[in-house]
Amino acid sequence: MGSLSPETISSSSKTLTLIDQNELLNLFKSQQKYLNFFFQNLDLSQTLTFTQTLLNAKGTIYFTGIGKSGFVAQKISQTLVSLGIRSGFLSPVDALHGDIGILSRSDLLVLFSKSGNTEELLKLVPCAKAKGVFLISVTSIEGNLLEGVCDLNVHLPLERELCPYNLAPVTSTAIQMVFGDTVAIALMGARNLSKDEYGANHPAGRIGKSLIFKVKDVMKKQEELPVCREGDLIMDQLVELTSKGCGCLLVIDDAHHLIGTFTDGDLRRTLKASGEGIFKLSVGQMCNRNPRTIGPDAMAVEAMEKMESPPSPVQFLPVIDHENVVIGIITLHGLVSAGL
């Protein structure tokens, strides 16, 4: 248990005030205004030169920064890596204690700093220059020291911080992030990165799975399939309907061609409408003879979209080949379990 007594918690909670909805809305509107100032005043010529320089890089593109700008620099570097671009983050403090050894003459070093006067970055500059690295500053305060010592400079227009004291770096870091990520997507387009190549860089995440996994990779097949014939009585197929965990029966002929589907929902509706007459009804009499289906080579994410499409969502799709032969079934539960 924590060290605070119930009385302390109770008394401290009384000092809390509610967030004013109008004040919150005004903050978002102000942030939007400051971001619009950035978009309206960004020098596209500088930005184009910066982007082209990154695209033409022969070596690795390193990013650096201190504090919040450092976090942004690290994130942008990781974005480039995910696009297959050689990139890395170099801590300016660690660089001065040995990590600068990773830099080579063919590399670029992008220095993110709101003020452009960050002491740690200014100390790093001559050391990086000695390695022959091309230096680029990305700053928001004009006339700063980094502009005078770097090979290329990009100015990110900043009207002011959202902070009421114009101190906390919240608008400036948002601008840095928007700038860096937009440039990253420009590089993605210029390099003609395909969807498959992008997916290959994200094999373990949902992004990669949605781009790599096909229906045949996640479908149930063979003994797992809940199959029956259209002449089978409904009541004789209850075990098959419930034991395979699909919530349905796949109605097939002797050659395994798909005739239709019969779901647990169909069972409930039939029981309600027919009462004891259900004991004499066959699956073929009550099945859906026009179900949604999918092929084995379709993307798994396409199967999910098809399940969720109008007029109403379904929990499964029979998987058929080009001759309408049932070869599997894919379920919504199976897609979720696969991380999709």
From TrEMBL:
Belongs to the SIS family. GutQ/KpsF subfamily. This is SIS domain-containing protein. Keywords: CBS domain, Repeat. SMART domains: CBS (SM00116). GO terms for biological process: carbohydrate derivative metabolic process; carbohydrate metabolic process. The record marks 68, 120, 161, 202 as: Catalytically relevant. It comes from Aquilegia coerulea. One of its GO terms (molecular function) is carbohydrate derivative binding. Residues 219-281, 287-340 form the CBS domain. Residues 50-193 form the SIS domain. SUPFAM superfamilies: SIS domain. It holds the Pfam family CBS.
